[in-house]
Amino acid sequence: MAVTAPSLESFKLDEETTMNEKPNFANLNVAALAGGVGGARLAQGLAAILPPERLHIIVNTGDDFEHLGLTICPDLDTVMYTLSGLANPKTGWGIAGDTFTCLEAIQRRGGPGWFNLGDRDLATHILRTQWLHEGQRLTEVTARLATALGVPCALLPMCDTPYQTQVITAAGTLPFQEYFVHQRCRPEVRAFRWEGADVAQPTPEVMAALEQADLVIFCPSNPFVSIAPILNLPGVKEAISRRASVAVSPILGGEAVKGPAAKMFRELGIAPSAVAVAERYAGLLTGFVLDSVDAGLAPAVAALGMATCVMPTLMPGLDERIAVARGVLEFAVAPR
Ligand code: FO1
């Protein structure tokens, strides 16, 4: 099925750039859809290349939950801490070098310790909860926190109202963090549903970012619980289908770099692969980036009607994140 969505051919590289130099992307408007750790890594690479006002990162809020009376937004915080250089490099979430004195005191008094909240991380949750309680939108609260922590570009929650992923498993229906952290992704997944989907709308800032984007990038995040919640919001798929869009596969060699995506594919009866990811986005994407390990799968992805790019996509450190981001942008703007 040929996809007729516009490519970026009409996009003009900066006048002083000739094709034999590295293209510069100073006037490319990019909206990136991101979930947790994988999304945050590519977002950090993009933020190092693009002018801050040209990059809008649209983040999944389906993982959000209330815990100890606090509003916790794990994907927003993972992207925020990664872009501000505060993130714990080992886990990808939370703050590097954080202490857990408060959590230990909570457990001493019989409270829950299964969700690890560091002392500095708690400052984010306390202020967010207070500002939401005062009536500020999650979009405004996120902008205040991100600006204070020095995040250069716009960090946009996909919606301002609760829209929480519920994981329907053989062991019952679990709120996302109960499944992901408390049950360590062990229960077998049958399906997903979203509390609050009936009233959820993408924020005006999200729709504006998509409307002004020359390119939409699907970061290498879980297609089921990070990217799909964003795509399923009213009007988002339509906005994306009118512009160039490129996804980076979160599945390499049949496995996820991090998290339960491959396990979810298997439990839903789908063999996990970059092709299986591309199939979930078929009809929406103009381009797809596979890791070098999956070069053999490129023709099967191309058969879905999207251009393909094969390159190393692992992003352990900042250099790799910038290299992958640059590769994705060059692929997206390359004349076809
Ligand atoms: N993930 C864990 O596996 N264990 C934790 O104790 C944990 C605590 C935590 C605290 C704050 C935060 O922003 C994220 C946290 N995460 C933890 C990660 C989080 O569950 C996942 O990153 C996302 O929900 C999925 O990407």
Arithmetic mean pLDDT: 94
CATH-defined architecture: 3-Layer(aba) Sandwich
Largest sheet features: 7 strands, parallel
At the fold tier of CATH, the topology name is: Rossmann fold
Strand content is 15-25%
Task: Record the strand order, biggest sheet.
Answer: 5-2-1-9-10-13-14
CATH class: Alpha Beta
Number of strands: 14
Q: How many distinct domains? A: 1
Structure description:
There is one protein chain. By secondary structure, the protein is α/β, with parallel strands linked by helices. The protein has a single domain (6-333), classed as Rossmann fold (3-Layer(aba) Sandwich). The protein is 37% helix and 18% strand. The protein contains 13 helices and 14 strands. It has helices at 37-49, 74-83, 101-108, 119-133, 138-148, 176-182, 204-212, 223-231, 236-241, 261-267, 274-280, 298-302, 318-333, and strands at residues 30-34, 55-59, 65-67, 70-72, 154-157, 164-169, 172-175, 189-195, 215-218, 244-248, 251-252, 255-256, 287-291, 307-311. The strands form 4 sheets. It has a 7-stranded parallel β-sheet with strand order 5-2-1-9-10-13-14, sandwiched between helices. Strands 7-6-8 form a 3-stranded antiparallel β-sheet. A two-stranded antiparallel sheet has the order 3-4. Strand 3 and strand 4 form a beta hairpin. Helix 4 runs antiparallel to helix 5. It is globular and about 60 Å long. It binds ligand FO1. Ligand FO1 is lined by residues 35-36, 63, 74-75, 77-78, 93-94, 115-117, 121, 177, 180-181.
